[in-house]
Write a structure and sequence with these properties.
- The chain is of the alpha/beta class and 342 residues long.
- It has helices spanning 29-41, 62-74, 99-104, 117-127, 151-155, 216-219, 230-237, 253-265, 290-298; strands at residues 14-17, 45-48, 78-82, 109-112, 131-133, 163-165, 170-171, 192-193, 197-198, 205-215, 242-247, 272-278, 305-309, 320-322, 325-330, 335-340.
- Helix 8 runs parallel beside helix 9.
Length: 342
């Protein structure tokens, strides 16, 4: 059975904005407006939902968030849904969603990362619809550095035509832009050199498979539930095997190590031909770095493990499509990831 891809975005299409997890406080509404105008400038109509309140840790009660989320994903006039950002407890929506209705609906691009992994990865696993792990709405005004694409670029790309992203070998080591004082900021601060790092040994990596993955801290909460059945997805949609990607948002190394051990024992990596690990600014410990935590948990897989990939919480952003066919190449002189929506 084929993975289903939403049709490419075209000028005039509607993009829905809702907050399945955390909303936006009044102090950052100016940044939200800048981000909306950026999407509109690409030729799209933006529809903002009611679940956007940022006063608490979620934008609205779970039933209201689920209803709005479902409504946007199944509205044939809305071609993409993107949140302002992630949050902490978006998993409370999962049992409230009508999964059969989502399977029957025309595919719509669902975009985001961080806590959005809690919804996007199950959506791909349970419906076979591709989702786009990339920058959230509040990050959208940033210009992609040379070699990388934005989620808007990928969502509008022709199906079946491969696209390659090459990391700039620069990232932001610490800190964040002050969106309250400078809501219009569009240039990423990339101040520190850094390439991809092979953790499991030496030698070149050249592996193909279908992409699936997301944020460790959120996906680990779904281990053992029907929402994270990667093996069933692999059997149905990826007999060629998987390229699994994971990234740590902020938890220290011991927690990440434990989470990854649990995910491995639950079968999350059973069909992995390689593992990509996002660059992280999360802390290590005196006896365990973040790299060592990954290797401790995933070394027994005996597959290539490539770390410091731009697919996490450290800018810049290398968007990945859950369900896409992909090829990862990493040598002493070049690193690249090619995706094809077919």
């Amino acid at each position: 059975m084929s993975v289903r891809y939403p049709r490419p975005l075209r000028p005039g299409d509607r993009v829905g904005v809702t907050s399945p997890s955390s909303g936006v406080g009044k102090d950052l509404r100016a940044r939200l407006e800048v981000a909306i105008r950026h999407v509109e400038a690409r030729g799209y109509e933006v529809v903002v939902g009611d679940c956007m309140d940022g006063a608490g840790h979620v934008s609205a009660p779970a039933a209201e968030r689920a209803r709005e989320f479902m409504g946007m994903l199944t509205d044939p006039d809305i071609r993409a849904v993107v949140p302002p950002w992630g949050g902490e407890t978006g998993l409370d929506l999962l049992p409230l969603l009508d999964w059969q209705r989502l399977r029957d609906a025309e595919p719509t691009w669902l975009v985001g990362y961080s806590d959005m992994s809690t919804l996007m990865t199950p959506l791909t696993l349970l419906t076979g619809v591709a989702t786009l792990h990339g920058n959230n709405l509040m990050d959208t005004p940033y210009r992609a550095p040379e070699g990388l694409l934005t989620w808007l670029d990928i969502a509008a790309a022709p199906q079946g035509r491969p696209f390659t992203q090459i990391p700039p070998d620069l990232h932001r080591a610490a800190g964040w832009d002050d969106w309250q004082r400078h809501p219009e900021v569009a240039e990423l601060t990339l101040d520190t050199p850094g390439r991809w790092t092979r953790l499991d040994g030496d030698g070149d990596v050249d592996v193909e498979g279908r992409l699936i993955g997301g944020c460790i801290e959120t996906l680990s909460n779904l281990t053992g539930t029907p929402y994270l059945d990667v093996n069933a997805f692999a059997r149905t949609h990826a007999p060629e095997g998987l390229l699994v990607y994971v990234e740590a948002a902020g938890d220290e190394a011991f927690t990440i190590c434990g989470n990854l051990h649990g995910m491995r024992m639950a079968g999350f990596f059973d069909h992995a031909k390689a593992v990509l690990v996002g660059r992280t600014s999360a802390p290590g410990a005196a006896s365990l770095t973040q790299h060592e935590a990954v290797l401790d948990a995933l070394g027994p897989l005996k597959v290539p493990i490539v770390a410091d990939v731009e697919c996490g919480h450290v800018p810049p952003y290398l968007p990945l499509v859950n369900g896409a066919r992909a090829r990862v190449v990493h040598t002493s002189t070049r690193s690249e990831l090619t995706q094809s929506l077919d």
